[in-house]
């Protein structure tokens, strides 16, 4: 019992530490979004069409995108009316709640952790894909899961070496072949190894040559066929890694990858280095795909499960209870 209590205390400390890091990491985004929003609230003494237009423009400029912003403003108008709110400052909390509502992640989002699963990780080169895989493998290993990595990004120079280094850091196995070998063949070997060694999770790195979409599509199809044929019972998860510093560009990448893969979750990296963190809200609302993980640092523990309450509270510096 005491061990369990100690674990819970440690978990709480960890969560608090990450929240502080999130508050710090979102500084640039906060300056971009919250300052603008606060200025709108201070500028107006009554809630009218002009107030909503100014708020709408501020949110669009902060990378929330037109579709998401329109939805937030429409819902805000309804709630202001229902609650008979007259003062702009009084509806700030309603705005915060509305942004949170756009980003809710279902409790079933992390099902793959509790099943024998295969996780495909996709995304263009340079977004932090390999690093994300290493961090995720480390987290799963800490949960006492048996994890195997598949180095199926065989075309990028040093991708295999980089993944091998992360496998060593996370203390998990890796299945790899020579550079330029067939990615589907690597996955075939990795699936065989995962079955033979009774692995809980197999995480597959994949190529990110989106400029060569036709080849990439065929490659991912081949990988999919191998997994379906060789391990039909495995639970499937496809995570796309996006670099939040690229803002609307990240949204476009997600849309293009969505055409060629059945994406089940988003990993947003480099949130600590960008003023464009508002893209986290836009991507989830526009694509209907949940942000499942966020990265706010280089450390192995700096990849965290996404929590919409924590994210928006850190953004608006709402104190945690």
Topology:
Layout: H1 2-25, H2 27-43, H3 49-64, H4 66-82, H5 92-102, E1 117-122, H6 129-142, E2 147-151, H7 159-170, E3 173-175, H8 183-196, E4 201-205, H9 213-230, E5 235-243, H10 248-260, E6 265-269, H11 279-287, E7 291-295, E8 303-305, H12 308-315
Parallel strand pairs: 1-4, 1-5, 2-3, 2-4, 5-6, 6-7
Antiparallel strand pairs: 7-8
Helix pairs in contact: 1-12, 2-3, 3-4, 4-5, 5-12, 6-7, 8-9, 10-11
CA-atom Rg in angstroms: 21 Å
Beta strand count = 8
Computed structural class: alpha/beta
Strand order of the largest sheet: 3-2-4-1-5-6-7-8
Number of helices: 12
The CATH class assignment of one domain is: Alpha Beta
Straight-line distance between termini: 25 Å
Q: Topology as H/E string?
A: HHHHHEHEHEHEHEHEHEEH
Spans of at least 5 consecutive residues whose pLDDT stays below 50 are none
Assign the CATH superfamily of one domain. P-loop containing nucleotide triphosphate hydrolases
User: Mind summarizing the main beta sheet?
Assistant: 8 strands, mixed
Mean pLDDT: 89
What overall geometry do the principal axes of the alpha carbons give? elongated
Question: What portion of residues belong to β-strands?
Answer: 5-15%
What does this structure look like?
The protein has 321 residues and is of the alpha/beta class. The protein has a domain of 199 residues: P-loop containing nucleotide triphosphate hydrolases (Rossmann fold). It is built from 12 helices and 8 strands. An 8-stranded mixed β-sheet has the order 3-2-4-1-5-6-7-8, sandwiched between helices. The relative contact order is 0.16.
């Amino acid at each position: 019992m005491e061990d369990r209590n100690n674990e819970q205390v440690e978990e709480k400390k960890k969560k608090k530490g990450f929240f502080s890091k999130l508050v710090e990491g979102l500084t640039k985004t906060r300056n971009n979004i919250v300052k603008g929003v606060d200025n709108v609230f201070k500028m107006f003494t009554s809630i009218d069409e002009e107030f909503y237009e100014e708020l709408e423009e501020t949110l669009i400029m902060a990378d929330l995108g037109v579709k998401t912003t329109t939805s937030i403003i429409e819902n805000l108008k309804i709630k202001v009316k229902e609650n008979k709110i007259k003062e702009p400052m009084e509806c700030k909390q309603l705005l915060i709640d509305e942004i949170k509502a756009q980003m809710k992640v279902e409790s079933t989002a992390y099902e793959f952790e509790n099943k024998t699963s295969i996780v495909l990780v996709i995304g263009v080169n340079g977004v932090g894909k390999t690093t994300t895989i290493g961090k995720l493998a480390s987290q799963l290993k800490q949960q006492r899961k048996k994890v195997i990595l598949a180095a199926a990004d065989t075309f990028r120079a040093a991708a295999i070496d980089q993944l091998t280094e992360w496998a060593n850091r996370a203390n998990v196995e890796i299945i790899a072949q020579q550079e330029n070998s067939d990615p589907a063949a690597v996955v075939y070997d990795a699936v065989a190894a995962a079955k033979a060694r009774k692995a809980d999770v197999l995480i597959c790195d994949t190529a990110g040559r989106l400029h060569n979409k036709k080849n990439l599509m065929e490659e991912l199809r081949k990988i999919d066929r191998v997994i379906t044929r060789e391990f039909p019972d495995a639970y499937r998860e496809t995570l796309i890694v996006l670099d939040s510093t690229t803002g609307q560009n990240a949204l476009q990448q997600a849309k293009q990858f969505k055409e060629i893969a059945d994406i089940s979750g988003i990993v947003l990296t480099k949130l600590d280095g960008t003023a464009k963190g508002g893209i986290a809200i836009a991507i989830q609302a526009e694509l209907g795909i949940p942000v499942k993980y966020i990265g706010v640092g280089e450390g192995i523990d700096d990849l965290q499960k996404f929590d919409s309450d924590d994210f928006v509270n850190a953004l608006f510096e709402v104190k945690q209870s």
